[in-house]
UniProtKB/TrEMBL annotation:
InterPro entries named in the record: ADH-like_C, ADH-like_N, ADH_Zn_CS, ER, GroES-like_sf, NAD(P)-bd_dom_sf
Signal peptide positions on this chain: none
Name of a matching Pfam family: ADH_zinc_N
Entry protein name: Zinc-dependent alcohol dehydrogenase family protein
Example GO molecular function: oxidoreductase activity
Limits of the Enoyl reductase (ER) domain: 8-343
Alphabetized Gene3D superfamilies for the sequence: Medium-chain alcohol dehydrogenases, catalytic domain, NAD(P)-binding Rossmann-like Domain
Taxon lineage: Bacteria, Bacillati, Actinomycetota, Actinomycetes, Kitasatosporales
Domain of life: Bacteria
Recorded family membership: Belongs to the zinc-containing alcohol dehydrogenase family.
Family matches, as PANTHER family: NADP-DEPENDENT ISOPROPANOL DEHYDROGENASE, ZINC-TYPE ALCOHOL DEHYDROGENASE-LIKE
Cofactors: Zn(2+)
CDD domains for this protein: FDH_like_ADH2 (cd08286)
Length: 356
């Protein structure tokens, strides 16, 4: 088979790799129908995630069909169409018992495309399948479902839930890329008074408006003042950092009001200055985190019911063997207007439910 292989910072290629096989009785093998590229994959290619060893197949998000199962797998069987979660969970360790699957100590957590071969290939081995793949309804197209492997649970759990968005809040989302846009759509579920999107790209700010942002601000034109003007000088109740660079994190800490929350979602590859000389007196809560994907079943039900605008984030589609072109388009989002790119050999359209 072929997969997209990391060869070190700045180098990767679509090439022949060995077919995956069952190694443990809890494994499944999935034939990949649809994958997407994550901002974290770009961080890997930049060298920001040194744990990824050369020779690793990248990718941690996919939709596909089960073709083989280990002897201990109970929840899926060959022929089932599934979502491959970005997080693998053993289900037995102390963290998994608390639904903190991202911190799994039983051979799970973020391992696909990180510590083991990932999903950007024709086939992928998924360990601990009973908690790490989710059967999909026929009403949900692959192109929509694949966005629930990572960005929607990440935005919802690490941004909205960690940030404790409540009715009537002012929420600022710094970074209107895919994660930021997913944070906007899921923050709306809690009826905040207003959501303000901050980004440098006009196209992304327009996308934020279309997905529910009440106001937008150019990151280079003093968005802190806009937040202050909208909140009588107090600042935002919740600020979600969805970029992953020092400047954006520090901007978030300047936007938050006393007693507010800064929820960091971005993947940081460099040290960030934490200005405790200013923040210590403000009762500010700062959270970080890797997604646990405990919300995936709920989000799947919402998407199947048409409650999540997943398809609005897909701007480009490619065949699976156009991985290099897709990476180039995604990496140059400021020029290409890319939000999410989806690759697949077999697109699965949603099946309409007959009227009663």
């Amino acid at each position: 088979m072929k997969g997209y292989v990391f060869h070190g910072p700045g180098h990767a290629s679509w090439q022949e790799v060995p077919d995956p096989g069952i190694k443990d009785p809890t494994d499944v093998i999935v034939r990949v129908d649809a994958v997407t590229i994550c901002g974290t994959d770009l961080h890997i290619l930049k060298g920001d995630v040194p744990e990824v060893r050369p020779g690793t197949v990248l990718g941690h998000e996919a939709v596909g069909e089960i073709v083989e199962t280990g002897s201990d797998v109970r929840t899926v069987r060959p022929g089932d169409r599934v979502l491959v979660s970005c997080i693998t969970a053993c289900g037995r360790c102390a963290y998994c018992r608390k639904a903190m699957y991202g911190q799994c100590r039983g051979g799970g957590g973020w391992i696909l495309g990180h510590l083991i071969d990932g999903t950007q290939a024709e086939y992928v081995r998924v360990p601990h399948a009973d908690l790490s793949v989710h059967a999909l309804p026929n009403t949900l197209a692959s192109e929509d479902a694949v966005l629930l492997a990572d960005i929607f649970p990440t935005a919802y759990e690490v941004g909205v839930l960690n940030g404790r968005v409540r009715p009537g809040d002012t929420v600022a989302v710094v970074g209107a890329g895919p994660i930021g846009l997913a944070a906007i759509t899921t923050a709306r579920l809690f009826a905040p008074e207003r959501i303000v999107a901050v980004d440098l790209a006009a196209a992304r700010l327009e996308a934020a408006r279309q997905l529910g942002a009440d106001a937008v601000a150019d990151a280079g034109e003093g968005p802190e003042q806009l937040i202050a003007d909208l909140t009588d000088g107090l600042g935002a109740d919740v600020v979600i950092e969805a970029v992953g660079v020092p400047e954006s994190f520090e901007m978030c800490t300047r936007m938050v009001r006393p007693g507010g929350h800064v929820a960091n979602v971005g993947v940081h590859g460099k040290p960030v200055t934490l200005h405790l000389e200013d923040l210590w007196i403000k009762n500010v809560t700062i959270t970080t985190g890797l997604v646990d994907t405990h919300s995936t079943p709920t989000l799947l039900r919402m998407a199947a019911a048409g409650r999540l605008p997943t398809s609005a984030l897909v701007t480009h589609t490619f065949p699976l063997d156009s991985m290099q072109e897709a990476y180039d388009v995604f990496a140059r989002a400021a020029d290409t207007g890319a939000l999410k790119v989806v690759l697949g050999e077999q697109r699965h359209d949603a099946v309409a439910v007959p009227e009663a």
